[in-house]
Design brief:
The complex is a heterodimer of chains A (239) and B (827). Chain A has 239 residues and is α/β, with parallel strands linked by helices. Chain A contains eight helices and ten strands. In chain A, the strands form two sheets. Chain A has a six-stranded mixed beta sheet with strand order 6-7-8-3-9-10, with helices on both faces. In chain A, strands 2-1-4-5 form a four-stranded antiparallel beta sheet, covered by helices on one side. Chain A is globular. In chain B, the strands form four sheets. In chain B, strands 14, 15, 16, 17, 18, 19, 20, 21, 22 and 23 form a ten-stranded mixed beta sheet that branches. Chain B has a six-stranded mixed beta barrel with strand order 5-6-11-8-10-9. The two termini of chain B are 34 Å apart. The chains are: A alpha/beta (239), B alpha+beta (827).
Chain lengths: 239, 827
């Protein structure tokens, strides 16, 4: 078994009236592509927020690259997060006022490190946006914007990239291209990716799928196919 | 539609709070300023000295000039057009001495009282000057005038020769009792009179705005120097016609009777009309400017929702109507709290102006519903028009934009922007070039030109600000964002430009005028050895004795007055001086052509330029009591600030000015003379060399200007903070995205700070440009010297204040925004 990059031990997170995470333990190995699935309200987004340090768990431990982040306070938490984590969101979350190129370099600039421009150029080439560096996000299609978001996540060489429904706003073909790029990042660049999705076809691109229901891990599936994921989802939803 | 509009207002409370606030303040200012102007226009004299007399006859209290123009119409017809223009007099002319007797002969007239009214300077037994309520002047009369009000004796007896009765209010203020001795100064000389009694109108101690001193009727002519009565009170049976006997004189009844009183004894509401007119001008401009900007910003914040409505099937026309309706509902709601706020505003401003003596002490704000409604209506109209203009571009947004993450308004509109900028800049240039800014219109016109330039800056805002954001380059990432968001920077910089431009222009110009006036004063008096003044002024006879004192080698006695000249059929009132000069020159007027002559008239360069006069020409003038004179122009002088535009023979002025007292005498004398002067004239003050303060008129005006600056400073400051708050609300998403990209809260604060810095830089630079142009032109027009800063301390304080406010407004809302809520919920 390879080293884990993200570890959750017995994580509990409550929102008023809801126990979103009810003692979740999970580990995500380095250089793997994992998917987190579950019906609406199962806690999969909360899991991602807690694992990525966007939110703090009520109890339990969260380790990122061996660092306990569950108890970190601002601005330490943000500094740790931006060193270790990259994000790809359903809504892209790019800065409209900055060009593609500046968006890609933004996290490193914020971290105050000298941006690795050669690597950033390579990443932009890999996601197929060479020549669009000076465009504004508003001038790009949805798929292209998600590629910018991916390039931005990769450019900082994070320990792990969290992807929250990265294909949720894209059509089927575009979504497949983005998933292909995620897969490529894991296979060729050795990146670790944790992706939250509700789409069995998207989850099938992962090495491993973790199923959540009512804030608990209820099943896991290695080397999934779309059919097996769909069957498992049906079983989970029927519980 | 209205339901949609109200629902939309509810949903966007945040954005609309800003527009609401701006509309509320604008309506409050408009209504308040409107009420001030209304109150001053409809102000009634506080008391009627002629209350007991049903009819009052007096000479005209104004100079009327009629011009007749013949218009040739087609078919050979001609039309005679008669235009009459008036200018109020500061003094009162006298009536023929035999007029009372002629009126008494009219059947039905039961009684006639010849009334004399003349200002007197009175000092009590302790030497302190006696003044009425709120510093009101003391007016002298003959004892028979007492029945016109009527005043009734409370103690003592009517005045005999050398005696006087004063009103109870004066007696209480000066702690004067019957048989005390008063020192009375009039233009005919100085008198000691014994108080024979204390009188008062029924139910009061005295009249508001004037104190009364009654002399024996036989003493009036000698003490006042009046050739006849200033008014005649007539008691008659109803329906009596006096038209046949009074000739040119006016017959007043009812409320109009006060107009027969001495103008100096009534509060002057003419000056305040122009002051409050100006207040309205400034507040209206600032209100419209700020409101337009705020409404436009509010509409821009909602582009996405507008696009969504478009996808839902709304036509651009419907959106326009929706935005228009929203704005009307909003402004109407804002007008509700604004109306009482306007009353408070008007009261506070009136109180300040009263304290500055820019308005009469008796002035009070009268709440008037139609004026308030008009203010509210104006606010609603401005909001509506601003919303429609902002909507004009925004509703053209393509429905598909709703589906993308960010909606941006079509950026067109460069042509109308440039057009507006060209027109306003052209207007400002024309004013600065063609209007004589050195004249009486200078201050107002320089304000108008700076307002026009500000409109140009606002129209071109983004295009002017964009190159300036280059200053943000060294600020790194924050600077990059500021440069990318140059439109936002422009939206925030424009209120700063307004704040700095308008206030600095007004403040610097008024400071400059004050400085120049003081310089002129110092330069005028530099040739004199000493300045002599007396409490309340000294009569011409005393001045003559002063001049004749052995050791005095030169003198210039000044008698301030007002003189009317007629230009293009319109009589205009000018400050003037009566001058009595003897021996060596003790007054340096910087004579440019001609020379002083004891029986001639001198005029300022500005006056000569305006009227096209030449030295040697005979010019027609009207003195303070309305008597016309024709005098030869013998001198043109330059040093007129704080002095007056005309110089006339002192004897002539003394005979026709109501008070007719010398204010100061500049003297040149041999060493040792000062002691003799002090010994011979114990009541006078001898101030060696210079050191006389600027005249009261100038400092009052400066006070009024500074108050106006405070008002507009307050309003523009609120506008800056308000705009900034609205813009920050829209940054919530940008902040969230930056946080997700790894920015710490501290970094976001620094970014907001950097953007605020860039905004302040752009705002100050553009504001300084506007101010520089206007102040430079104004300064050049004054004395040919080009000044930018005028007063570095004032300039730095203004710039510093604007900078601090801009930085606070740019950073505080971000701080509040970032304190709320966790990160994940914003993602």
């Amino acid at each position: 078994m390879r080293n884990t990059v993200v570890d959750l031990f017995d994580v509990v997170k409550c929102y008023p009236g809801v126990r979103a995470l009810d003692g979740v333990s999970a580990g995500f190995a380095a250089g793997t592509f994992s998917a987190v699935m579950g019906p609406s309200g199962s806690g999969k987004s909360t899991l991602l927020h807690c694992a990525a340090g966007l939110d703090r768990p009520d109890s339990g431990q969260v380790k990122l690259g061996g660092h306990e982040i569950g108890r970190l306070r601002e601005p330490k938490l943000t500094e740790t997060r931006r060193r270790l984590v990259g994000f790809v969101f359903q809504t892209y979350n790019l800065l409209d006022s900055l060009s593609v190129w500046h968006n890609v370099l933004l996290p490193q600039r914020l971290a105050g490190v000298r941006p690795d421009r050669a690597w950033a150029r390579e990443v932009v080439r890999r996601v197929g946006l060479s020549g669009r560096e000076n465009d504004r996000p508003a001038q790009l299609s949805g798929g292209q914007r998600q590629r910018v978001a991916l390039a931005r996540a990769l450019a900082a060489r994070p320990e792990v990239i969290f992807a929250d429904e990265p294909t949720g706003a894209l059509d089927l073909a575009t979504g497949r291209e983005v998933l292909g790029l995620l897969r490529e990042a894991v296979d060729e660049l050795g990146t670790t990716i944790v992706m939250v999705t509700h789409d069995p076809a998207a989850a099938a691109w992962a090495d491993r799928v973790v199923f959540l229901a009512d804030g608990r891990v209820v099943a896991q599936l290695d080397n999934p196919s779309a059919e097996k994921v769909a069957a498992q989802m049906t079983a989970v939803s029927a519980r | 539609m209205i339901r949609l509009a109200i629902g939309s207002l509810r949903r966007h409370r945040g954005v609309y709070a800003g527009t609401f606030l701006a509309a509320m303040l604008a309506v409050a200012l408009l209504a308040g300023a409107g009420m001030l102007l209304f109150s001053v226009l409809t102000a009634k004299p506080p008391a009627d000295r002629f209350a007991a007399a049903p009819l009052v006859v007096s000479g005209a209290r104004q100079v009327s000039v009629a011009t007749e123009t013949v218009k040739h119409k087609k078919e050979g017809k001609t039309k005679l057009k008669r235009k009459v223009k008036n200018e109020r007099l500061t003094g009162a002319g006298t009536l023929p001495a035999d007029l009372p007797a002629r009126i008494a002969a009219v059947p039905g007239v039961t009684g006639v009282v010849a009334d004399a009214a003349f200002p007197v300077q009175v000092a009590g037994p302790d030497g302190m000057p006696l003044r009425g309520t709120d510093g009101a002047p003391v007016i002298g009369h003959g004892w028979r005038s007492a029945v016109l009000t009527p005043y009734q004796l409370r103690s003592g007896h009517p005045p005999a020769h050398g005696e006087a009765v004063i009103d109870a209010d004066l007696a209480a203020r000066g702690r004067v009792a019957v048989s005390d001795t008063l020192h009375v100064t009039t233009r005919t000389g100085e008198y000691s009179v014994r108080v024979s009694g204390i009188a008062a109108p029924a139910g009061r101690d005295g009249l508001a705005a004037q104190g009364a001193l009654f002399l024996a009727d036989g003493d009036v002519a000698a003490v006042s120097g009046l050739a006849g009565p200033t008014a005649v009170g007539v008691f008659a049976r109803p329906g009596v016609e006096l038209g046949g006997v009074v000739g040119d004189a006016e017959v007043y009844t009812g409320d109009d009777r006060v107009r027969a009183d001495l103008p100096g004894a009534l509060p002057d509401y003419v000056g305040p009309i122009s002051i409050f007119g100006f207040v309205i001008g400034i507040t209206a401009f600032a209100a419209v400017f700020v409101l337009t900007g705020t409404v436009a910003l509010g509409v821009r914040q909602r582009l996405r929702e507008l696009a969504l409505l478009r996808t839902a099937g709304a036509t651009p026309g419907q959106l326009r109507r929706l935005l228009g309706l929203e704005s009307v509902v909003l402004a109407a709601l804002a007008a509700l709290p604004a109306a009482p706020l306007g009353i408070v505003f008007a009261r506070v401003v009136a109180a300040r102006f009263r304290a500055l003596h820019a308005v009469p002490a008796q002035f009070s704000v009268r709440v008037n519903l139609p004026v308030m409604l008009l203010g509210a209506l104006a606010g609603v109209l401005v909001t509506f028009v601003a919303a429609r203009i902002a909507a004009r571009r925004s509703v053209r947004i393509a429905p598909t934009q709703a589906l993308t993450e960010t909606a941006t308004a079509p950026t067109g509109g460069l042509v109308p922007r440039v057009l507006v900028a060209l027109v306003t800049t052209g207007g400002a240039t024309a004013i600065l070039t063609f209007v004589p800014l050195g004249g009486p219109l200078g201050m107002g016109m320089s304000f108008v030109s700076s307002a026009l330039l500000l409109c140009a800056v606002a129209a071109l805002g983004p295009y002017l600000v964009r190159p300036l954001t280059i200053a943000a380059r060294p600020l790194g990432l924050a600077g990059m964002l500021a440069r990318a968001e140059y439109r936002r920077v422009a939206a925030l910089a424009v209120p700063l430009v307004l704040m700095f431009g308008i206030n600095a222009t007004m403040l610097l110009n008024s400071t400059l005028l004050g400085k120049l006036t003081e310089q002129d004063q110092v330069a005028r008096d530099a040739v004199a050895t000493a300045q002599v003044t007396g409490p309340g002024g000294l009569p011409l006879s005393t001045a003559r004795r002063l001049v004749a004192t052995p050791g005095v080698t030169g003198a210039a006695a000044l008698l301030p007055t007002r003189v009317i000249a007629v230009k293009g059929g319109k009589p205009e009132d000018y400050p003037a001086q009566g001058l009595l000069a003897a021996g060596q020159s003790a007054l340096d007027l910087d004579v440019r052509s001609g020379a002083y002559a004891a029986d001639g008239v001198g005029a300022s360069e500005a006056m000569v330029r305006q009227y096209g006069w030449k030295v040697g020409q005979v010019v027609p003038l009207w003195l303070a009591d309305g008597v016309p004179v024709r005098l030869r122009l013998t001198m043109v002088y330059a040093r007129a600030r704080g002095f007056g535009d005309l110089v006339l023979p002192a004897g002539l002025v003394a005979a026709h000015d109501p008070s007719g007292l010398i204010s100061t005498v500049g003297l040149r004398y041999t060493p040792g003379t000062a002691q003799r002067l002090l010994a011979d004239f114990p009541s006078l003050r001898v101030t060696p060399a210079v050191g006389a303060a600027a005249t009261g008129d100038a400092s009052e005006q400066q006070g009024a200007w500074e108050l106006m600056v405070v008002i507009s400073l307050g309003f523009t400051a609120i506008a800056v903070v308000n705009t900034s708050a609205i813009a920050t609300a829209s940054r919530r998403r940008e902040y969230a995205d930056l946080r997700l990209a790894g920015a710490t809260v501290g970094q976001l604060h620094r970014m907001a700070g950097a953007e605020a810095l860039v905004t302040v830089f752009a705002g100050l630079l553009l504001g300084a440009a506007v101010t520089g142009v206007v102040v430079g032109a104004f300064s050049t027009a004054q004395d040919g010297a080009l000044r930018w800063l005028v007063d570095p301390a004032t300039y730095a304080a203004m710039a510093g204040g604007v900078a601090v406010l801009g930085l606070l407004a740019g950073t505080l809302p971000a701080r509040l925004l970032l304190r709320r809520r966790g990160l994940a919920t914003e993602a």
